[in-house]
Amino acid sequence: PLLASAHEDGCICLWSIQGNLLKELLPFSKYHSVPVTALCTDISTEMLLAGNKEGDIMCWSIASFLEDPQNSKNQIKEELCWTAHANEVVGLFYEEEKNVIVTASTDGSVRLWHAKQGNYLGYFGQPRKFELSDISRMILPCDVHDFPTVMKEESKRMEMKKLDCPLILDRDK
């Protein structure tokens, strides 16, 4: 069992049920420091999804971490991020059988996305039926301008390094 908490600074904390902090997550992408407003997982808790105040969705693979949280080799990997709405995400749902993510926003829209690629599939209330098998089309809702970003294995967060000579104010210069 695991508890996840979303925070205003964009951080997601993973806790044991005893109340011990196991891990803090910050998105690798441009979406860090934006308040997280929605969280969900799949049924088997292999994937963690988060939505934020700017309408973005981030997806992490957490399966290997949950097998052994104490093992530092078992990392949580951010796999996918995209803008789903122009406004705050207030609801997230992952339908594992259909491989679909449903997002809801304060703009009043409820949209469907392909879970593994972040491709837009449609919105509730559209005149046509949802075509869940055709994920090759790269279309976007009219208020979204960025395509999903798939995180590569080699894309790792840069670590802050201590400098040997810190910056010093030189009033003469």
UniProtKB/TrEMBL annotation:
Keywords from the UniProt entry: Repeat, WD repeat
Family matches, as InterPro entries: Beta-prop_IP5PC_F, WD-EF-hand_domain, WD40/YVTN_repeat-like_dom_sf, WD40_repeat_dom_sf, WD40_rpt
Coiled-coil features, chain-numbered ranges: none
Repeat positions for WD: 82-123
Keyword Repeat in record: yes
Chain ranges passing through the membrane: none
Residue ranges of every copy of the IP5PC-F beta-propeller domain listed in the record: 27-114
SMART domains: WD40
Keyword Magnesium listed: no
Xref: Gene3D superfamilies: YVTN repeat-like/Quinoprotein amine dehydrogenase (2.130.10.10)
Protein name as catalogued: WDR64 protein
Organism in which the protein naturally occurs: Oreotrochilus melanogaster
Native organism taxonomy: Eukaryota, Metazoa, Chordata, Craniata, Vertebrata
Gene: Wdr64_1
